[in-house]
Amino acid sequence: MLKRSQSLRNEREFLRMFEDCLQIIRCFGFTVSYEDDLYLYNLLLEFASAGILADRIDERGLPEFQLQKYTKNVLGLSLIHKKRIIHCDIKPQNILLTTDDGDDGMAEVAKIVDFGLSITLEQNWKENVGNRGTKRYMAPKALLKKEYDPGVDIWSLKCTVYEMITRKPLWESSNS
């Protein structure tokens, strides 16, 4: 449990860096409790009233205008990279859909979530390689355990967009 708690603490720190970014889920705070000899660390995140991108793809697919809009929203990934962070697990399950008031009424916004596997470019090489992420969306260099860079997120984003278009993953994996 300690390892998972550390992951959530790290995630909270990453989310703090993006409090004003509309394309990244907002973190309103956290709680720590002690139960059954375990410390439980909970993040209080923005409510994703429109669900998860993966469910939307599975249910009915996406019309072209939504595909374009969600892809544009997820390009908030560039803001993550400008802060020298690699997300390491971009996939439809880690993109939540919120409903915001827009100029033309209620609009859905795709937001990146789950920074639990994220790393900074400054982390040492040993921490910056290996199996971080979901194999189905991992870049070849990540699968080959080469050093991570922002390109691994771009690869994952391409796999995600492919899945949004076709409603099928680019390939199957035993660890999907």
Give the strand line-up of the largest sheet. 3-5-6
If classified by CATH, what would the architecture of one domain be?
A: Orthogonal Bundle
Secondary structure tally: strands: 7
CATH 4th-level superfamily of one domain:
Transferase(Phosphotransferase) domain 1
Number of continuous helical runs: 6
Sheet with the most strands, sense and barrel status: 3 strands, antiparallel
Cα(first) to Cα(last) distance is 23 Å
Mean pLDDT: 86
Could you tell me the CATH topology label of one domain: Transferase(Phosphotransferase), domain 1
- Mind telling me the CATH class of one domain? Mainly Alpha
Q: Which term fits the overall shape?
A: globular
Protein name: Protein kinase domain-containing protein
Pfam family, one: Pkinase
Organism: Solanum verrucosum
GO molecular function: ATP binding; protein kinase activity
Features:
34% helix, 3-stranded antiparallel beta sheet, two-stranded antiparallel ribbon, globular, alpha+beta, Transferase(Phosphotransferase), domain 1, 6 helices, 176 residues, 7 strands
Description:
GO terms for molecular function: ATP binding; protein kinase activity. Residues 1-176 form the Protein kinase domain. It holds the Pfam family Pkinase. Helix content is 34%, strand content 22%. The protein has six helices and seven strands; from the N terminus they run αβββαααββββαα. It has helices at residues 2-16, 53-60, 64-74, 77-82, 140-143, 151-166; strands at residues 27-35, 38-45, 51-52, 85-86, 95-102, 105-112, 119-120. Strands 3-5-6 form a three-stranded antiparallel beta sheet. It has a two-stranded antiparallel sheet with strand order 1-2. Strands 4-7 form a two-stranded antiparallel ribbon. Helix 3 packs antiparallel against helix 6 (151-166). The longest helix is centred in the last third of the chain and has 16 residues, at 151-166. It is globular. The protein starts with a helix and ends in a 10-residue tail after the last helix.
